[in-house]
Write a structure and sequence with these properties.
It comes from Halopseudomonas salegens. One of its GO terms (molecular function) is aminoacyl-tRNA deacylase activity. By secondary structure, the chain is an alpha/beta fold. It is built from 22 helices and eleven strands. Strands 1, 2, 3, 4, 6, 7, 8, 9 and 10 form a nine-stranded mixed β-sheet that branches. The chain is elongated.
């Protein structure tokens, strides 16, 4: 075997992997991940299982592994191996990621046939941040005992987000029609029995648009909900806000520590979060719902303050958009419970694919569209509905673009630090320029949030208990 040394290489591969490659006479270069070629030539591995045993699949990273298609091919209901079992297998081989090496496993392997069309490919090596670059002839040796098939869906074939938000209702209705296998003609809100906007949220939103509303008015609304009142006081007492002295009342919490706008948006976020239960099922290796919501809101709060005052969007609404950015996830689980399990399994099998694209492929509508549609149905501010709908569109420049762009930027910064779901999200100079934020200031904003981890846990726990 010829191992070509590079300046960016660590000392060696794990001994087992090096031996397996040597036994097959496969030459490779060990490269840093950022030096890998295009996604179409990078290989994504997934270890699946059923009551018969395990199957390893290999697809290009510009494809989505379709479990339904795999079932049609193999006649087996395969799902991703549970994380605890996978970590145990990796630890046994002194690895910290699943390598795309069939020779490591005694189980059958199926690979996307387009993989061998390229003169070279890049495989996950088993070491975080490192890939194996191998030539086509060696790739053919690697999968000599595997089966080729069409088991992936090109991401480029998944329809993009419609330009018109009015299309969201039709898409959701069509998804519901397909889901129920009935040709219902009721209005969408009758079909899926969406609950009304919670009373507390209604009262708080009325205060938000009332220019004469006072701290006392807000305190009166908060105090009608004992759970909310207790949490507002607890938020104010959290180390995250470092309030001087003891917090003695809701008025004290609002007037001296949190402020009118922040309490309004925290209260609305909590009230809306109570309308849908957290789903019992969820994709493994993803950030819990409320942690992701709180961290995104806190990051947006810091980012928005970096925007020059003359072009700065409304701080309260940017915070609320961050808090609710993943609300469509809760609604998705509520509307499509059996499909939601399938979505979770596909998300586990495709960590390289943004979750909203998995939604689009499987049910024809995304969690972003669903969340945005519900915001409009509940007559929430248009800025929030837009932020939810276009939160994954880095180039969005339409109405209320700053809100959507801030949610995108916050998620991208948090993804770089292991919070959220899906692949890293690129942060372009154009995005930062449109927002008027320097890259160094954006990094400083997320670093401040991450440094307050212990304090933020208090807020996360309050939401989870609420």
């Amino acid at each position: 075997m010829n191992t070509l040394p590079l300046e960016d290489s660590p000392t060696t591969l794990p001994q087992l992997i090096e031996k397996l490659l040597q036994d097959q006479d496969i030459a490779y270069q060990l490269r840093l991940q950022q030096h890998a070629g295009p996604a179409s030539r990078q290989v994504q591995a997934c270890l699946l299982s059923d009551n018969i045993g395990n199957v390893l699949t290999l697809i290009p990273k510009d494809h989505l592994l379709d479990l339904k298609r795999l079932h049609e091919l193999l006649g087996r209901e395969l799902v991703p191996v549970r994380d605890v079992e996978l970590q145990r297998t990796l630890a046994k081989h002194q690895l910290n990621q699943l390598p795309a090496l069939p020779v490591l496993f005694s189980s059958p392997c199926v690979y996307e046939q387009s993989l061998l069309q390229h003169d070279e490919v890049w495989l996950d090596s088993g070491l975080d941040g490192w890939v194996l670059q191998i030539q086509q002839a060696d790739a053919e040796k690697l999968v000599a005992k595997a089966s080729a098939a069409k088991l992936g869906v090109p991401l480029s074939s998944i329809p993009p987000l419609p330009d018109d938000p009015q299309q969201d209702s039709a898409d959701l209705h069509q998804a519901m029609t397909n889901f129920t296998a009935l040709r219902m003609r009721q209005r969408l809100e009758e079909t899926i029995e969406i609950p009304p906007l919670p009373e507390t949220a209604q009262r708080v939103m009325k205060l938000r648009v009332n220019p004469d509303a006072t701290v006392d008015d807000l305190a009166d609304v908060v105090e009608t909900d004992p759970s909310l009142a207790a949490q507002v006081v607890s938020w104010a007492a959290s180390p995250f806000y470092a309030a001087p002295g003891k917090i003695r009342s809701v008025e004290d919490a609002i007037g001296r520590v949190l402020g009118f706008d922040l309490v309004i948006n925290l209260a609305v976020g909590l009230a809306l979060g109570k309308t849908f239960k957290l789903p019992a099922d969820s994709a493994e290796r993803t950030t819990p719902y409320w942690k992701q919501a709180i961290y995104t809101a806190a990051t947006i709060e810091g980012l928005a303050r970096k925007i020059p005052r003359a072009q700065r969007p409304e701080l309260g609404l940017t915070y609320l958009a961050g808090l609710l950015h993943n609300f469509g996830y809760l609604v998705l689980a509520y509307i499509f419970p059996p499909y939601f399990r399938t979505i979770c399994r596909h998300q586990e099998a495709n960590p390289h694919v943004p979750p909203h694209l998995i939604d689009q492929h499987l049910i024809g509508v995304t969690r972003d569209q669903i969340g945005s549609w519900l915001m409009r149905y509940w007559d929430m501010p248009a800025e929030v509905a837009t932020a939810l709908r276009h939160q994954h569109s880095a180039g969005y420049t339409g109405e209320h673009a700053a809100y959507a762009n801030l949610v995108y930027l916050a998620q991208a910064l948090l993804r770089e630090n292991g919070i959220g779901a899906g692949p890293d999200m690129p942060i372009s100079d154009d995005l930062l320029e449109r927002l008027g934020i320097e890259r160094a200031d954006a990094i400083a904003a997320v670093d401040k949030v991450l440094a307050a981890e212990d304090a933020l846990k208090t807020l996360v726990n309050q939401y989870q208990r609420g």
